[in-house]
Structures are given as C-alpha cells and as structure tokens.
Batch of 2 targets.
Target 1
Amino acid sequence: MKCAFCGHEFDEKEARQGCGACPGGCHSVHCPKCNYSNPLEAKLIRKIRSLFTRNDDQGGDGA
Amino acid sequence: MASCCANQTEVSNRGDTLKRVVLVGNPNVGKSVLFNALTGAYVTVSNYPGTSVEVSRGNATIQGRSWQVIDTPGMYSIHTITEEERVAREIILHETPDVVLHVLDARNLERMLAMTIQLIEAGLPVILVVNIMDEAERMGLKIDLNLLQERLGIPVIGAATARKRGLDQIRSALASYASGKEGAAPMQFPYASPLERNVQEVVGLMKGEYILSRRALAILLLQRDEEIVSLVREREGEGYAAIAAKVASISFERRESFHLDLSLERNSMVRNLVKGAFVAPDTRVVTWSEHLSRWAVNPLTGVPLLLLVLYFGLYRFVGDFGAGTLVDLLENRLFMERFNPWITGWVKEIVPWEIIQELFVGEYGIITLGIRYAVGIILPIVATFFIFFSFLEDTGYFPRLALLVDRVFKRFGMTGRAVIPMVLGFGCDTMATMVTRTLETVRERVIATILLSLAIPCSAQLGVIIALLSKAPGALAVWGGCLMLLFVVVGLLATRVLPGDAPMFYMELPPMRLPQVSNVLTKTYTRMQWYFLEILPLFVLASVLLWLGKVTGFFEKAVDAMTPLMASLGLPRETAVAFIFGFFRRDYGAAGLYDLQTKGLMDARQLTVAAVTLTLFIPCVAQFLIMKKERGWKVAGAIGLFVSCLAFGSGYLLNQVLLITGLLT
Ligand SMILES: [Zn+2]
Ligand SMILES: [Zn+2]
C-alpha cells in the first residue's frame, strides 16, 4: 500500500506489527518511513471491494 | 583517469559478487518508488552513522547477479549544503558504487541536468533515468532521449516508475554495466578558457587517489567545500600547501565571481545539451495540481489557502453542518424528543429499583447520557470531521502543509515533520501523542507532546466547541486567538527552556490530485468504525463511574470542591460537571458543555471561558496514559501539572479581560 502522507510505498504486512502502541489495539497501518497511521481497511469494505474489483486490479507484479 | 582506476581497484577488492547501485537525485523525482520497485520487500531503513538522516538499503537480483541498492536523501548538487546532501555525497564517496543512478524529473530536465554533468565530471559511473515521462508527455514536452544519450555519453533511460514503465530497461542497463559492456569513455565538458585554466591549474597540483575525479574535486575546492578541503588536505599531505595557495590566489584573483561564472558556464552547457533534444510547447501546460501544489507551499498563498481550507472544511462543514444540522437532527429530534422518553418509560416499567433505573436512564445513565453523547453528539461530528480529514489526506495536501509550517515550527524547536502528530491530533490527541515518537529528537518530541496536550483539541471536542461558539458572534475568534497565542508562547518558551537544536526537515512531495470519492468514503468508514469501537466502552464506563459517583455522593463532593474554582473563572457551578466529564474524554467534556448551553445556563462570555479552559485543560485519561508510556512518569506528570495550571490560569485571565473590556456581552 501507499502511505497517504508521504507517498512511501510499502508492504502492508510488514508494517502492521510495527506499532502495537495505539490505544485500544492498532487499527491502522503505520508507514515505516514517517509512521503516519493509515487506516486499515475495514473487513466490510474489503469484502465489498472484492465484489467489484476486476481481475486486472488484483494482478500484482506477478505478470 | 586516476579516479576511475581507484574506483576499479576497490571494486575488484570487494569481489564481483555483490554490486552496488546508489540512487541519487533531487527530492521528489520518484527515487523511492524506483528503489521499492528494484528491491521489493527486504529493505532496511537506518540513520546514517552520526546523523539523523535516514538511508534505505535493499537487495535486488538482476539477471542473476546480486545488487545492493542504496536510496540516498535528495540532493541538488555535488557541492553540498544540507545535511541530507552531505549524507548523499558521503555515500557516493565512501561506498564506492558500481553504478550511480541519477533520477530526474523529465518536466524539469533542464534544471536537473546540471547535476548529471557534475556526476559525469566527477568520473562516476552514471546512468541517467529521465523519470515522470508520462506527466511530461501529457504536458506536451518532447524529449529526445537518444540524442541526449549521445551528447552525455552515458546510458539515458526514459521512465515512469510510478507506472512501472522503464524498469526493465533500468535493470538491463545495470546488468550491462556490471558485465563491463558499458566501456565507452564519458564525455568531457570543458569550461570556457579562463575558468578551465583555473581548474586545470589546481588539478595539475593534485597527486592523491580519489573516488571523485580530480577535476570535480578541484572545482569543489574552488567552491570552498570544507569537507573536500579536509579530504584533499589529508590525501595530499605535504603537497597540500601548494594547492591551498593556488586556490587562495585564484579566489583572490576572481573575487566572488567564481560561483557565478561556474553556474553561468554550467547553464550554457545544459542549454547546449538540450538544444533540439528537449522541446517544450510554446505555452507550457501547467496542470492545476502543479498550480495548487505551488500555492500550498508558498507562504504568501499557502496561509490564505490554509485559512480557506479551515473555514470551509472545519467551520462550515464540520461546525455548521456536522455539529449544527446533523447534531440537531440526532440529538434533539431523535434522542431528546423520541428515544430518551421512550426508553426511560420502558426501563422504568420493567426495572423496579430506582437505583438501577438511574444506571441506565438517569441523569448519568448509560443509555440516556453515554449512548446519547456518543451517537447524538459525537457521531455526526466525527463523521463530518473524518470525511473532511480523509478528503484532505487524499488530495496530498498534508505534506505540503508540513513544508509550509516548517519555517514556523522551526521557531518552536520543531520541524515540519511535527505537522503529522499535530494534524493527527485534530483526530485524536491520544493517537497523536504516540506518533510524536516519529520525531527525530527527544526535545522535539517533548515540545510536540506539550503542545498537543495543551492547544490541539481533538476532532469531537473541536466540532462541539465550534458548534457551541459559532452561535455567539466573536466567541469563536476569541477562543481561536487564545489557543493560537498559547501555542506560540508555550512553543517559544519550550524552545528556550529545553536544550538542543532543531533538526533538519526534508520530505519528498507526492503529487497532488483530485480525491476519489470511494477512497474518502472507505477511509471515513474505517476511521469511524475503530473510533466507535474505542469510545463506546469508554463512554459506558464513564457513565457507570458517574453513576457510582452520584450514588455514593462522591460526585456531588467533587462538584462542590470544584465550585470555588469554577466561580473564580466566572462560571456556574454546573460547569464542574463538564470538566469532570472532560477528564474521562475530551469529547465527553465538550458534549457536557453542549448540554449546559442547551439548558441555557451560560452566556457568551462564560461559554468562551469554559471552552478555552476545557480545550487547554488536562488531556483525557487515555492521552495521559500514553504520555506516561511515551515520555515516562516524570515528564508526563510535569506536563499534566503544567497544562492544568496554565489552563485554569488562562481561563481566569480571559474571564477578567472579558469582564473589563466588556467584549462578548
Ligand atoms: Zn509515510
Ligand atoms: Zn498503531
């Protein structure tokens, strides 16, 4: 994902464990570069999105 | 060339298993994107030894060969000025790159080519990446990359790394460098005769082995680059005296004209280079986002723009619409008129004990107070705030705001970087306090923590207060003025009192763009979801505690104890309740104030004094705990005490001023 503050692109999984200090559990993905807390996409949204995304959006860099 | 040989020997000493490529270029040309594309996931980011500058390193496998990729901080020239530039040059000087990848922005090709010339002149193995080609093409710029390659004598690759364009060419250019296929001697760029003669005179005296070419070093010596001076002094030993004398005599002879001559010469070199290779349309198309970006960063236009953003975003949208219209709808129409009477009747019917009825539907009942505050007052306010916040975030405005405020924040011992916690503080101070750990120095962290706990209201509190005060003309201005004044005074004082220097700030600006509705909505939904998960239990707990306080009579005693304090601020006794709420959560306190105003218990002056005191007043429990966790008991305790005294002191003073001047009456 891309940090909404500094534009740094990073792997979501890498950053997720990075924080652990947000009150009430961390619900955000902290940018490894600037530590801006990007909101972690809610499950509901993720599901809705997966219904609408076409295949070409999910290709990643495999191709 | 001696420099090249020196380079080669060191390379072969290291063995040819691990090649090294260093990315250099101005800030904001897409280096980081290219870095990420080359390296993938395995990246380490660490401070460069002895500095606060971060350098990213990662590994890449290119055509079967392992590479180390180093991303350097932005630099404008080999003649370094900032700490970032010094670090970038240190890396070139001491990490003996096999390839220096100079990334530049195609839209500003002419301005940025000067550094390419410097890199070639320094004898470095340069590959030029002309990035952001897609934007340049959209603007109608035509760039002849082949002609440029021919004139520069180094590989030139057109790319749009954000769109993964040109990556393969970059990889194969790296691979052919590694296998020694790129043997062609780089171009020489001679200067006009007097300048060229001066450079040659200095070069002729140099004997040592260097990574940068003697020619480049001679020019840097003539520019009085201190690090290069000491490097040359060290390498040349006894011969240095002659060089120093030569440099001094040339400087004397040319007076100050050396820098000017050099830059004029380089400009004309670049002009020759791009002649026919870079064609801009007659009327250059400047995209609206470039305009906006420039306006946002320039203080003359940036400050009015910020005020506009705040007026329409916070005042009109969050204040008027969210905290006005929507709260009225939910709180008054739904809760007060319909839901509360209904649930109260219902609970009283099925629960026989009054004390339990009170717990749920009483004055401080979980449902009639806790849920009502959360859903009726806080929900519409944070919803509108998060929409506004996510919208701004999506435009890419925040990093520009950081640059804009950098020069102001410097006076407070912070850098523009501190805008991140400050901006987040308007969302929730608790979260923001935690984010202060991203600031570079302990001093900056402490200052930011103080300012956060003092003068930055969180979103819900802000919304409620704006809604409250916008009904009394002038009140909002007085409130805003007081906060600004304290922010500035405390910031300035903190810088004086706390030891240490303000660190440097540097940031690459991602492009500005039109926000996408889906992005804004999903972010808003996500933020609201976790916000509610977090606050609902707290509101319920606070209600229970308040109920306990009421049942045991403790609450009454606390209000009694605070009555003299409230009286000294010129506030009615009931305001103590809002302050006690505020201790649980900032927004809870503000909601309490909202309640009091609805009941008609306060006039404009009292409202303003209460709002100022409550905003400044001690951070909520959660923020205090995070402060303790981040800064330790001593610092957190000191900040808490300081902030509370300052809050009530300011409230007292403000009340006196308002009474004497008769303002707001
Ligand atoms: Zn970031
Ligand atoms: Zn977190």
Target 2
Amino acid sequence: MATPAAVAARGEPAYRPRTGRNIELALLLCAVAIAVFGYVEVGINIDDRVPPDAAEYGAALGGLALVAHGVIRWRARYADPLLLPIAVLLNGIGLVVIYRLDRATPGSHAAPTQLLWSALGVGLCVAVIVLLRDHRVLRRYAYSGALVALVLLVAPIFFPAVYGSRIWITVGPFSIQPGEFAKILLVIFFAAYLAAHRDALALTGRRIWRFTLPPGRVLGPVLLVWAAFIGVLVLETDLGMSLLYFGIFVVMLYVATARTSWIVIGLVLAAAGVVLVGWLSPHVHARVDQWLHPLASVEAGQGANQIAQSLFAFAWGGVLGTGLGLGHSILIGFAAKSDFILATIGEELGLVGMVALLLLYLLLVSRGYRAGIALRDPFGRLLAIGLATIVGLQVFVVAGGVLDLIPLTGATLPFIAQGGSSVVTNWIIVALLVRLSDLARRPLPEGEA
Amino acid sequence: MSTTGRRAGLFCLVLILLLAAQATRIQVFQAKGYDNNPANQRKTIQRYAQPRGDILVGGDPVTGSAATGGRYAYKRTYPDGPLYAAVTGFSSQTYGNTQLEGVEDGILSGTDNRLAGWALWDEISRKQHPGGDVHTTIDKAAQQAAVQGLGNQKGAVAAIEPSTGRILALASTPSYDPGSFAGTSTADQHAWTELQADSDQPMLNRALRQTYPPGSTFKVVTAAAALAGGTVTDINAPTGAPYPYVLPGTTTPLVNDTSACNQPNLDLDTAMTLSCNNVLGYLGVQTGLDKMVAMAQDFGFNDPKLDIPVRAARSNFDTRMDQSQLALSSIGQFDTAATPLVMAMVAAGVADNGTVMYPQLVDKLTKSDGSTVQLMRPKVYQQAMSPSVAGQVQQLMTDVVQNGTGTSAQLPGAVVGGKTGTAQHGVDNSGTPYAWFISWAKPAGSAAVPPVAVAVVIADSDATDVTGGRLAAPIARSVMQAVLAGKSQ
C-alpha cells in the first residue's frame, strides 16, 4: 500500500472528491436494461415473440442515455448521479407501457412518436447543460419569462377545445400543450421574485390576531399572478394545471418566508377558487361527483365510467400484477395512454410495480430537494425546490386522480404518459436539476472550506 | 430556508405515501369487490380467453369452441345442440351458464383448483389452465331414440341404468339450440329473446325441472309399499278391495277407466294389469300414510336436493293427508307430482331388486390431457324394499306389458316390465291428460339386473285418445331397444 505521502510524491492529488459518474453509468445501463426487458416481455406476452425492433429501441434509449451521460461528465461532473438514471428509467417504462397499449389499439403508433419526443427532450436537456453554465443567469430573464408563460397559457384559448379543455395549440399534425413549458418559466419567476422579496414578505406587514399579513405592495403582485393564472386556467378548464401551479406557488412562498400565514392564505384562496370553479363549471361539479361515487354509473346501470374502469384495472392487478401485456386496461378508453397510464402500470405490474414507481418519483423529488437545501444562494435553492415540487405535486395530482384519492383533474404523469410537451418539459427540469446539483455538490475551492 | 425546505420535502413525502396507501387499499383490500363487479369485464374476458373444455357423450364431444375474433376470444358451439340441450344446458357469453355447463363450470372453464399442478405457483404466475372435460353417462343411441320418439310432442324422457344409477338418456321437447345465443351479437340476443317469449317453453328441462302428476305409474310405488308393509302377501290372492270404493269420509266413489275392474276383491296382479283405481286406492289407505310416504321418499320423492349433479326439481308426495286424499295420492293424483327422473328411479329401483341408486349424469371429470380429476362411483340412494318384494313388483310390471295396458312396450327377445299412466289435470280435469309410461327391460333369459329403466311423459298431446300405453310406451320401447341393442353388440 502506498502511503498518502507517497501518492502525493508521485504528483497525484491526495484527495479526489467523488463525482459519482461511474455509479451513474452503471445505473444507466441497469435502467436501459430494465426498459429493454420490459419491451421484450410485452412482445412475448402479446405476440409470443421478441418485438422485431427491440434492438433498435434499446440502442436508441441507450444512445440517448449515453449522450446525456457524456455531456454530464464533460460539463457537470459533480451532478447528482441519480437524476439521469431515474429519468431514463421512467422514460423507458413510459415507452414500454405506451408500446404495450399501442398493441391493444390497432393502427396506433404512439410509442415511436414518444421516442422521438424523448430524443428531443434529451437534446434540450443536453443543450441546457451545455449552454447554461450558471443558473443565476436565469434570474435576469425571470420577468420576461413570466410574460412568455402568460402568453403560452393564453394562446390555447384561440384553438379548439379537445375533450372539453382548451390546453392545446394545434398546427397541422402537431399539437403541443404550452402550459407544460410555462411551468418551468413560472417556477423561475417565482424563485427570482421570492428570492428578491423574501425579507419583505417574511418580516413586514400588519399583524391580525396570530398571523402577520404581508404589506399590500408585496402581496399585490403575488395575488395578481395568482388571479391571472387561475383565471386563464379556469377558462381552459385545465384543473390539473391550476391545482399544480397553485400548489407550487404556496410551497415556494412557504419555503422562502417560513410564514405559516402563507399556507393559511393559500388554503383560503384555494378553497375560494375550488368553490368558485365548482359553482361556475358543471365539468368540475361532475368530476367531484365521480370522485365521491366512482361506481354510481355502474349502479345506475350505465356501465363503468373512466374512474370505475381505472379502479377495476388497479384491483385486477392486485399485488403482483398480471404481467406486461396481459391486463385489460385498454377498457378505460381514450385516455388510457395519457391521463390514465398509471392504471396500466397498476394492472400489469401490480402494487409492487406501483410502489417501485412511486419510490422512483420520491427519489427524484428528494434529490431535487437535497440539491436545493445544499445550495447557498436563495434563488438556486428556491429554483431546485420549486422544480422538485413540480414533479412531486404533478405525480400526486395525476395518480391521486386515477386512484380516486382526489377528484380527477387530468394531467400527465411525468416522463411516463404519452405526450411530447410533457416529456420535453420534464427533461428540461432534469437538466436544470443536474445543473443545480452540480453546483451544490461541487467541492469548495481551496481556502474557502 | 433549509428548515422550511425540509418541511416542504416532508410534505411531498407524505403525498407520495398517501398514494401508496391508496394503491394498497384498492389493490389489496378492495380488489375482490372490484374484480367481482358486474360492470367489470375482466372475469368474462378471462373466462372466454381460451377454448372451453368439452362435455362428452360416449367419449365424443357434443360441444365445441369457436374463435370469435372479438374481446371474448372463444365462444361455445353445439354441433348437435337441440339433441343434447337437456344434458348440457348452455354457456352463453351474455346469459351465463346453466345445468352441466353451469355446475361443472370450474372444470370446463379451467378455474377449478383441481386442475392446478402447483397451486401456489399457479396462483403467483396467474397461470390459466386449459379447460377440462366432463364425461357424461349418456348413451348416444338411447338419447337419439328418446328425442326421435318424442318428436314434436311436448314431453320428456329419463332413462337410467338401474344397477349404477347412470343416466342413459335425458330428453325434453320441444328443445332449443344452446349455440344460438352463445355469443354477444344482436343475432344471439334476438335468438334468446325469442326463446324466452316462446309459449312452448323450449328452454324448460322437462325431464329434470318439471313435475307432473304421475297418475297410474305411481301404482308401482303403492304396490311396493303394500307388499313391503304386509298389506298384500300374495299378488294373486284376493285383496279384499271393495267395489265401488267410496273415498273414506266422502260419498265419491273412485271410478275406473275400464269396466273389467268393476268387481270387488280383485287380486293385486289383475288390478295392476288392468290399472284398477279402486284396488290401489284402497291398498294405499290400508297400507297407511307413514308407509306410503316412506316408500315414496325411498324412490326420491320429497328430496329438495336431488343433484345429479344438476339439481332436479322436488317431486312431491304429501306427508299430511286424510284418508280420501291418501287414496287419491296412491293412484298418483291429488298433490302427487313427479319429475320424469324420479319416475325413472321408481322403475330402476324395482328392476335393481329394490336398491335405488343415486342418479348420475357425470361419469368422470378429466384434465385436458385426459388424466382423471374425479371418477364418479355408483352410490346407493335407498334400499326401498327387499329383493323378494322387488321380485313380486317386477312380476306385476311384467304382466302389465304382457297382458295389460302396456302391451305396446313389448320387445321381441326381451323381458319388459312397465306401467302406464294417464294423469288428469286442469280445472275439473279439463286439460289434455298427461300420458306416462315407466318401464325396464332385459334380454330374455338373463338373470342379471335389467340394463335400462325409463320414464316417459307426454304433456298436452294433440292426440284424441290420450293414454300412456298408446303415446308413451312406444317411446320407452325404442329407448330400451336402443340400450339393449348396444349391450348385445
């Protein structure tokens, strides 16, 4: 054994901080292998043969993973080694399940399309990691970003409604959901605004009973943003998104100011919003009824509605699931690949698969929070926590809806549900978290320790 | 901010734990309820995901399966549907399963645990077993003879092998094609609706599920009870029965169909041969309610759970009656009602020297590879009477066919015993009488137990002269002939 002195004498550094890059590579290979295994299993279970494009599919996913890994080695070598493998695994599971549902819908080719969108997402992820050397740059664009976000959110009002919601922009064969991208811009805005004004928000204001209300000039813009977004979203009847935005907003406010009064105000506003929307929109009213009585349509002799079908799928899966390709979640109908994709996972992979999936999300969220808590600049900290909260809340809103835990709102399960805008957005979130965690984990320069 | 950040993180953790808890609730604790919800198609999809096992007659399937290309991948087919409908019942994707298709559904659909090789592993891997087969006891020739004999009359036939209780024929007409509504199409629904609306009730299994007043065929039971109870010791000795016999406690005499009966003190053999109501009514009363009830129940009356394994309707012989009612019941009237199956048990019990065997429709259950899951062994239902009493009743029945009302059941080269019945029904007996015949047959000179006993009923015939001897006996004869011909080969 060489003594440290001897090592130092040979010109090697006495201390090499662990970057975790090799762990990341190993985990990536596992993630790709799991996805390929799932793909093959679908083929064997449904067609009794390995899907002919299994190798190409594995190569594509593996290639994307390796490119992203290489770029992280090059530009973010201290980044959290779990972020990329979790994202690749989730995306891979999504592709497998979408492929599986394609096989149950003749003429459907959603999986190749999703793979293309995933490639675009990884491409943008790589671009963000390469181009964005320091996240603090984003602060400069916070207000213009918020404006863009508003425009993005308003735009779908001018396009036709799809399944009762105006949340898509359709150009020829392409349709995107701009609200997805707006999420990131909004979190950046919130982070920048709160980082700048957190002292005012936290320390000043009038005291009413046990709560201290923030002064109007600080509270004003916050309420304005809330009203603008909720208003737009109500017009588009996209409840999932409004719930999500609102939740993120309240969480970030609380983290920034440490004031419980914000939570109270938030809950009051939320309750008011829910009552208002429930009163104005029969659509929402119906959703609440279905949530409380998922089997009412069955009892009325009208057959099972989507929620009932979703519950049937979960129940049929039981603890161990039917096996990929062997369930009948296609009975759910048109949203089986998007809003209800979790039901397929519940049916074919069982409770075991569900818990594994929830743990993956939990790990992703906790890694985001870890990066945030380790960062010392308030903007970066709020940004990381905000981005992680997007993922966590979105999982809750979607999964809670299809599991009949909360009223169904209609939103995409991060990385897994069919939908280009969603996949691309989530890859950008991962890119930002990679960037933030790189800074959070980077060893301090000499003398600063 | 790090404290609040941690708290917010904890909040996310709680949210995801809530999801896991809800998933557990649905997938573990509430799963069974959702699986069994009638609006959940999964069980039906699974049931029809593979070809159903078959019901076999003489080793050949009388059922089949056809790929549908739909969500329910396979549906039931019946190559000779109407012929075996009373045996098989139906298996319909829309209307469920009945009779053998229903009772043995676990074997046929592959869900029965006995089909599992490694129960625990199969449970984990959710392996679905290929459907097993149900081998029936039906004799193809006897069944064909029964259905052909019934033709387009409304009626039923039940034939039994007396020594084992194996059911050789089970026919009910008019019949139906269970394959016509096996699927889910509008044509299937139409066929079903039409069958349900048919006033002739083609889907009623008259051999098993319908009771009729047995009329004079019940006199076999009365004679057996009289002999077993000591009321009569010699079938050729005068019985002391009066003529006219006035129903006790009334002023109504029990009339006969034939004037040859109209004399007092006839012997039992003559009374049976001519089917004299006054004698058998008198003997029933002399024998007493308790002994009559016991004898009837030994043959299967009043058994609410007669499962062959398809459940037969309960045949009735009242256990509380006054003497006039008992007299009427003793000649198969009043509240007495029997399924053709139970009347076949009466004939079979007499033929098998007094031992009534439990009727069985299923021989064995096998896996799809032919290995046996369960073998049905003959079971004794009751020892109704001693062999010597049975011998005397056999003599009475033989005489009916040789010299009496049942001559049209005679078979060359065979010893045939039988009893006719023509049962009144309807208000003031206004309905067309039911024509009955119960019998057994064995090759002449054979000392063995007769290989076949049969009961035939014709309800609502168009014929002007309705008697059991004229309408029902020829059908019984052709069924017995089919079985005897099969045995002699």
